[in-house]
Amino acid sequence: CRNLTFPESLPEVSIVFIFVNEALSVILRSIHSAIDRTPAHLLKEIILVDDNSNNEELKEKLQKYVDEVNAHKPGFIKVVRHSKQEGLIRSRVSGWRAATAPVVALFDAHVEFNVGWAEPVLTRIKENRKRVISPSFDNIKYDNFEIEEYPLSAQGFDWELWCRYLNPPKSWWKLENTTAPIRSPALIGCFIVDREYFQEIGLLDEGMEVYGGENVELGIRVWQCGGSVEVLPCSRIAHIERAHKPYTEDLTAHVRRNALRVAEVWMDEFKSHVYMAWNIPQEDSGIDIGDISERKALRKKLQCKTFRWYLVSVYPEMRMYSDTVAYGVLQNSLKSDLCLDQGPDTENIPIMYICHGMTPQNVYYTSSQQLHVGVLSPTIDDDDNRCLVDVNSRPRLIECNYAKAKRMKLYWQFTQ
């Protein structure tokens, strides 16, 4: 990366930091690393979006710091304060609305920038404004602020639409160039985008709640609607994975609702996979996902491709489950409050357990008469789907492909 050269003329960037009850010291570390590690002629402004924090030091103390900076460089730091908590998704859109530079970088307020992070990003966006860029992330340990280097990765998701790191695609490895951009199906969360292009493709889905799923939706939308998503190995940013989540300790309900919005708007016949992964019936799910008519109209207006195209062309690693004919839980016919459960992960012995409907009790019955129990493996590289197998008249959970190759008894017939 040190040997790369970049154009002298690059677009300016507005850096947006979102926070709610973040430690002031952490916010200041983020600001100072942005200033220190971004060439002054490229950094137009820093925008702080306070999503209705109740931490007092984020009011007067933070404002005093901002005033001191702006006394030397008027208008360099802007503060946007919400009168009520909007959530991370709508806060990012607030930050975008306040930005004036041609390129906007949307980040959490607990990151630290590495040397030379900006030039690779701005070069790629200057070459093609329809690129949405993620840096490569490292970890900052929350207890001692030591930086832990992460391997280079693409960014994808599972069928519940939780984001996850992926191995870079084979096409990237064939280049034998570790500085080359990595094609990425989705985004982990923080990203950099051309300000006007972001508006053209519909910003973020403000009908979603809090956060979770919006980064996956953005990646899917960008690809299906003619853009691209990249991770840049030479743009490195370290991120604190906090022990305490400021919005809620359990995002599950929000991510589930947001995921169903994505499924209904963008995923066509494959929306069934999202419902299956969450173990929710497709009809009468009981979950109010809100009005999605505007998002559907956006897809039509942008003349976007199908989700099948996306799976084939962008995310071929994603494992499909179109052969699933039924899913839910298996209840004990003699005691209806007991369900089949995968039991402890390490033992591979299924058990009967009080029905709770969570992932360990998810059951998927395929057209080939296999019973998958537990989580759905998200990609073809994760060969860990487990099937219910009869081993010497005792049930076991064994990796499905292995059981099939060994001609084990893994076929089950149901009659109604």
From TrEMBL:
Name where it's found.
Golgi apparatus membrane
**Gene Ontology cellular-component annotations:** Golgi membrane
In its UniProt entry, the species of origin is given as Rhadina sibilatrix
Q: Name one GO molecular function term.
A: carbohydrate binding
Keyword match S-adenosyl-L-methionine? no
Which SUPFAM superfamilies does the entry link to?
Answer: Nucleotide-diphospho-sugar transferases, Ricin B-like lectins
Please state the gene responsible for encoding this protein: Galnt18
Q: What is its main location?
A: Golgi
Q: What is this protein called?
A: Polypeptide N-acetylgalactosaminyltransferase
